[in-house]
Amino acid sequence: MSRSVRVVWEDALTAYDFGPGHPMAPVRVELTMALARELGVLDAVELAGCAPATDDELALVHRRDYIEAVRRVSETGAPDRSAGLGTEDNPAFAGVHEASALIAGATLAAARAVWTGEAEHAANVAGGLHHAMAGTASGFCVYNDPAVAIAWLLEQGASRVAYVDVDVHHGDGVQALFYDDPRVLTISLHESPRTLFPGTGFPDERGAEGTAVNVALPAGCGDGGWLRAFHGVVPPLLREFAPDVLVTQHGCDSHALDPLAHLMLSLDGQRAAYAALHELAHETAGGRWVVTGGGGYELVQVVPRAWTHLLAEVSGRPLDPFTATPPAWRQLVRERTGETPPLRMTDGRKPEFTDLSTGYDPADPVDRAILATRNAVFPFHGLDPIP
Fold first, then answer.
1. I need a surface site. Which of 18, 111, 181, 360 has the fewest CB within 10 A?
2. Whole domain around residue 327: which residue ranges?
3. Which pathway does the UniProt entry assign to this protein (predicted)?
4. One-character DSSP codes across 77-105
């Protein structure tokens, strides 16, 4: 399915490090790239480096005074709470600007490769820092790399960009930065803001012309309900919007083992979402697909396997879920974390769902969430909200 694929990677991307004990531990991307390499996934792609985003590129979405504040924190490591740095979520550290700008630069490099036609798909698994706002850090995110990439694509002449965010947390930063811009369709499927940070992402947050789309799922939602919601909302909107480029954020903290949230997806359900988005990139965006990582805080059992599957899907060569994890990678896990590594690339689930053609159950909280979203935004797009 995929013609040319680029994965952007620099070892220096692991410098985005809030310190010992912080959930956003860089070992998660280190182990991801090691697993992808051991399984031959990276043999099927072009690996490319990147440069840090410039201040002008960051200023496509971030305030200049905020960038200056991050630079000051970066020089000294001293907190600046007005910039959101020095909090429990976002500890200040020396080098924070350079580390954050490199992540933004990696996602920009992916967007540039796709826009210029150098690659059909491009990925930065270290990216997806979707909570950062124009003038403050938030939710482990300093610079909003997906938003920077989207703004850059618009500056290059893209008339429509779609952003789909499957992180368990609402993609509030990206939504806020494009809330009044009908050229950008933001779709976020997340745990209900009633039970999870950041407390936003209700269906009535509709943006410009219904281009902010929020599917707020109940705590405890698993593969079947999540996939039913995805297929009940995302494909019809992407088909109608017909973006020039599809940008996706793949936080894997929707997994049942994630310590910071309450959805119950399996690795296999997440893999099904990756495959669906791949198909939609070809169907609705001419194959132009920019992919980022995101959240995910089960550092050994979930993130490396999930994002290795993601990279394999992006490459057009999905892995057999029953593939064994390589012995060398298992040894690396023990050395780097002291934990017991998973033995296979699956949770052993068969994710199945019924689509909305089977009817709507008003007693089911997932169906109520789906219908709330469809009622809120489908009419703006000329779509019937009634399943």
1. 360
2. 5-47+102-381
3. Ketone degradation; acetoin degradation
4. ---BGGGTBSSSSS---TTHHHHHHHHHH
For residue 76, is it within any domain?
no
CA–CA distance, 314 with 44 (Å, rounded to integer): 10
Give tens-digit pLDDT for 31-71. 999 999 999 999 999 999 999 999 999 999 999 999 999 99
Q: Is 21 exposed, middle or buried (0-12, 13-18, 19+ CB in 10 A)?
A: exposed
Residue 83 belongs to a domain: no
Q: Is residue 387 part of a domain?
A: no
Instruction: Kindly give the residue spans of alpha helices, DSSP state H, lying in 242-384.
Output: 267-285, 303-315, 327-337, 365-377
Question: Is 131 one of the annotated active-site residues of the chain?
Answer: yes
172 residue type, one letter: D
Query: How many alpha carbons lie under 13 Å from residue 133 in its C-beta half-sphere?
Result: 13
Q: Could you tell me the pLDDT band of residue 2, with boundaries at 50, 70 and 90? A: low
Residue 328 maps to a domain: yes
Q: Which residues pair with 167 in a beta bridge?
A: none
Mean pLDDT to the nearest integer, 185-206? 98
CATH number of the domain bearing residue 139: 3.40.800.20
Angle at 249 between CA 243 and CA 253, to 5 degrees: 150
* Structural domains counted in the chain: 1
Query: Could you tell me the pTM of the whole model?
Result: 0.98
pLDDT computed for residue 300 by the predictor: 98
